[in-house]
Amino acid sequence: MTNLSQFRTFSQHLPVQDYLMPVLFMGHGSPMNGIEDNEFSAKWTEMAQDIPVPTAVIVVSAHWFTKGTHLTAMDFPRTIHDFGGFPQALFDVDYPSPGSPELAIAAKKLIHSVEVGLDHDWGLDHGAWTVLRHMYPAANVPVVQLSIDYSKDARFHYDLAKELYELRKKGVLILGSGNMVHNLRMMSWEMINGGGYDWALEINDEFKRLILNNEHQPLQAYQTLGKAAMLAIPTPEHYLPLMYTLGLKNEQESVSLFNDKAVAGSLTMTSVRIG
């Protein structure tokens, strides 16, 4: 049975795996990473080869910021080009991964803290497909997106993630896609290929310390971490996907970092693997 046909029986028949699927947070950076072969996209490819092939993927992308919580529930989500000013080659990309209404319904049933809507209009935005096309270039793994409710705080999103834990036992890869440090207004073109302001490096180091020490409460209350945190997170959409990754960690699991680099002065590509 193929990976896709096996997954179509997800809610009733897909067995519990003899492993717990890892969880990822990807610093996705510029949309151009979706078509460039560079140090970041190479690591995305390597990561996919290093973890089990998932039965499906749930992506929490910085670029689906909504009122309320929603899951894409169409058979074939469209590729969304939600950006401007980039080369035509980027707009020409189509990532024809199937969706999974079955997974959307199963995930909805697991979430009890809030009513979840099933969406048939969104698709896969660039926070999802720019990463996934390097991880699974054949586009043969079903993908569902989970939106981020902009009216809720970081703790809400951290706690909501815990309700999805059982999916990890079914081989579902849950992937947060954003950037820990993300301040586009302060970008430096002189540092576009690498380098960060002192405040960006300082707070990124603090984020890493807290993640590696399993100290999640300060990360949920990032507003208390000082001026550098406020510069790093002027708006929360790129930070909140990290909460989903951390919320899915159990106490015994290992944590590792990759793509740990600052670019353009005020962004960091630092990414996290759990499990």
UniProtKB/TrEMBL annotation:
Ranges where the Extradiol ring-cleavage dioxygenase class III enzyme subunit B domain occurs: 38-251
Transmembrane region(s): none
Superkingdom per UniProt: Bacteria
Gene3D superfamilies: LigB-like
Entry cofactors: Zn(2+)
Primary enzyme class: oxidoreductase
Metal-binding recorded as keyword: yes
Cross-referenced Pfam families: LigB
EC number: 1.13.11.29
Keyword Metal-binding listed: yes
GO molecular function: stizolobate synthase activity
Keywords attached to this entry: Dioxygenase, Metal-binding, Oxidoreductase, Zinc
Family assignment from sequence similarity: Belongs to the DODA-type extradiol aromatic ring-opening dioxygenase family.
Protein name per Swiss-Prot or TrEMBL: 4,5-DOPA dioxygenase extradiol
Lineage: Bacteria, Pseudomonadati, Bacteroidota, Sphingobacteriia, Sphingobacteriales
